[in-house]
Amino acid sequence: MTTIKIFDTTLRDGEQSPGVNLNNLEKLEIAKQLERLGVDVMEAGFPASSQGDFDAVKKIADTISSSTVAALARANKHDIDRAWDAIKGAEKPRIHVFIATSPIHMQDKLKKTPEEVIDIAVNMVSYAKSKCDDIEFSAEDASRSELPFLADIIEKVITAGATVINLPDTVGYTTPKEYGAMFKYMKAHVKNIDQVDLSTHCHDDLGMALINSIAGVENGATQVEGTINGIGERAGNVALEEMAVTFEIRKDFYPFETNLILNEIKRTSDIISKLTGMVVPGNKSVVGRNAFAHESGIHQDGVLKNAQTYEIITPELVGVTSNSLVLGKHSGRHAFKDKIKQLGFSLDDDKTAVAFDQFKQLTDRKKEVTDDDLFVILMDVQTDIKARLQYQLKNFKVEYNSSTSPTATVSLITPGLNTIEGQGTGNGSVEALYNTIEELIEEEIQLTDFTLSSVGKGKDALAEVHVSMTVDSQPVSGRATAQDVLEASLNAFINAINRVFIIQVAEKE
Amino acid sequence: MTTIKIFDTTLRDGEQSPGVNLNNLEKLEIAKQLERLGVDVMEAGFPASSQGDFDAVKKIADTISSSTVAALARANKHDIDRAWDAIKGAEKPRIHVFIATSPIHMQDKLKKTPEEVIDIAVNMVSYAKSKCDDIEFSAEDASRSELPFLADIIEKVITAGATVINLPDTVGYTTPKEYGAMFKYMKAHVKNIDQVDLSTHCHDDLGMALINSIAGVENGATQVEGTINGIGERAGNVALEEMAVTFEIRKDFYPFETNLILNEIKRTSDIISKLTGMVVPGNKSVVGRNAFAHESGIHQDGVLKNAQTYEIITPELVGVTSNSLVLGKHSGRHAFKDKIKQLGFSLDDDKTAVAFDQFKQLTDRKKEVTDDDLFVILMDVQTDIKARLQYQLKNFKVEYNSSTSPTATVSLITPGLNTIEGQGTGNGSVEALYNTIEELIEEEIQLTDFTLSSVGKGKDALAEVHVSMTVDSQPVSGRATAQDVLEASLNAFINAINRVFIIQVAEKE
């Protein structure tokens, strides 16, 4: 068995998914879970792209110890300096330098000759190497590059100090045979290739990210880049959980394994789905909620007779547990703390107190408090969804009557601790709420997306709302969970607005 | 170029997705769209499984003319009789007989010897052939069957009259090399194999449904079975739109094509997603809404300089149009009828009148009525979501105040045309509504899932609610669209209850 290193780029390529805007605490929480999942490398961000990204990468680098923390940089000194400044505190830092190598990208985007591109790549890898031992070089759009040129530039950047060579299928265009052949070619034609890890990076535009990655591995790649849930630019990256589970289930066929802790997969998938607002569809391989469900009578009959008739992956393998009932009205703080640990959270005393309060409030109103419910509470508290509020909701009222327009009344506490109140109407009750709050605050708001889903089953399930909007032309998203759809809708809206303030403050600092 | 036949099983395997319960009008609407998309064969259902399924298959068989309509049957006379009765009115009927051929399925599920399985298969194919010229035979769990046995049974069922042989990867366990090798083996060892179409049927449990299907095609398969959006049992089937687009985009590499009208893909995907309630994730290949979005600054810059730097599929290819503004307050019936045609709907006069009324109501309340909005109205009218109501909503009221419990008042008109009214509370406003209505009607209801999404952008977007529940232990789903989340929630609930009545009436008839 060859162990394939897992390079997770959920926080960089995944975070580039349209509509995804994670704050730094959310990124940190994802990073901690990725470490628990056992990723060998996590790409924490692109520090030169914004101050917010820099701060997030630094915070992650300073926190994570067992995984390598990588930062992306274009092939220029400024980007490399910013990347290094962000990650130099990490136990295992890596600078990830990239430049495009395909004719179309060099001509039309970079407007450079191939010789110029080689010079830049070699110089910038050397420059990065003067700061950091572990340097990954990516030949962007490798799958549309000319093989001899690619071999040439790779050999030279390895000589310049690169420790990992990544050959991305940037546009998701390749097929397994072509992608595998590229790796085979490099193994045969680059004389110092055995000094480095070769890496795949595949996009799913044609639905082949997984098999292309496997083809790379079968032809010499020892690192696979991807994301959890397959999020990322356009159709996304390869879903790492699919690769790891395929290698596990088909170890009779594929002589590869990864260091991922497979029963952390479901939890990781849930956290990333909730925090990014990127829904995992029911029919998603490995982590979709139907993946282990058997609907037709024929299948159910078969599974009862012998599960293996229709089930090749057990739910337990990837950490899916039946939604156990936990803790009730009479549970005390001690039992609550035990449960927090069991669910894998590590909260400080203040946050534990806040979470316990919220749990108690919920037990007053909901008969069955499930692990799912607790997970939402703990995640909200951990990522400080309420603690850093600028605008705070004091109270609100909605009157809906099918024969007239809905009316909303909202009281807010402003950042200056004044109470402001307004009333408004709309064609729907959420619109009435949003109209009212827009009148109350000064920012220019455009709502671009609104989704609401239930957490768990039954009519007393929690409502989880995710909104995307632009506030003064800046894209931002917000989320909130409550037992009432109107309350969750209103809080998600306020949460999004508050995030703009947090970003603005961070950029001034 | 070899033309590969597309066998769509959205209405059979896709409809087996947990939580999906389509009524007959919805199935018919999907069937009509599949015909427009140009599928060679559509599997309309499994007539022996229930009277409802039988009726749906019959209605589809009687309506569709250019695609073959197939009906599934286990290898027994009763199933085959039911299948034939349902499809005999079709222009191009096909009976699809299956029996399992893997050791585990034969021993543990069927409890038959291999010889018995061959006898049954041959006899039942002959029996089906006595009714229908076009007979497909599926060797269930073929990918875990022994190759010589599989070759033996195939040869015999071809002699018995099968015209299509399907070799499914029922549990989604295979890899492209193994699956391709199976087809190659059959081409080499079954002497009458060239008399039939060989078919793939792949599930996505390990994320390899697409590449496995392609491997089958590369080794002699001339038919591919799958679904739109890849819905289906567990992780679903191969997504047919991904296969068709891959063959189009990579025709330089793959010498295959399909008869699908590619620019009908998006519309087909939308219809199926809306009617099944199976959400298409943003990062889904080909049809996800991010598939053509470019988020990072680097990518945006590249696309502006030359779209092909990062874009290999144009939105237009698959029928994605920018969300054009259409029709306003002052648009008349004539313009509205033109628009209906343009959107691909064919409504009778009564339904046109209902749709026009709803459109007018919407223009009173919503500044910009988009194609998306109209699509929802037309689809609701076309699938009779309101016309067949048993319980009808008269009016309702909700009062929400953050300091007390929400209160709901609901008036319903019963199937006997009486008005009943009730009041109730809950921990959330939707719960209050649902509690109230549950008190008003007699059935035993368990809500199992609730999702709400916005149609289009902005705070005056329509709210689309999809609920799944059991009513007197019978699983059913409902959906509704309205400009208010509470109204949509209530109507979806009532819609689900009414569907139970429709099913009960259909079963009595």
UniProtKB/TrEMBL annotation, chains A, B:
Q: Which keywords does UniProt give here?
A: Amino-acid biosynthesis, Branched-chain amino acid biosynthesis, Cytoplasm, Leucine biosynthesis, Manganese, Metal-binding, Transferase
PROSITE patterns named in the record? AIPM_HOMOCIT_SYNTH_1 (PS00815), AIPM_HOMOCIT_SYNTH_2 (PS00816), PYR_CT (PS50991)
Source species, domain of life: Bacteria
What InterPro entries would the database entry show? Answer: 2-IPM_HCS-like, 2-isopropylmalate_synth_dimer, AIPM/Hcit_synth_CS, Aldolase_TIM, LeuA/HCS_post-cat, LeuA_allosteric_dom_sf, LeuA_bact_synth, PYR_CT
The pathway it acts in is: Amino-acid biosynthesis; L-leucine biosynthesis; L-leucine from 3-methyl-2-oxobutanoate: step 1/4
In residue numbers, the region (Regulatory domain) covers 392-509
Cofactor(s) this protein cannot do without: Mn(2+)
- Subunit-structure text: Homodimer.
Membership in a protein family = Belongs to the alpha-IPM synthase/homocitrate synthase family. LeuA type 1 subfamily.
* Matches recorded under HAMAP family: LeuA_type1 (MF_01025)
Designated name of the protein: 2-isopropylmalate synthase
Species whose genome carries this gene = Halolactibacillus halophilus
Q: What is the lineage of its organism?
A: Bacteria, Bacillati, Bacillota, Bacilli, Bacillales
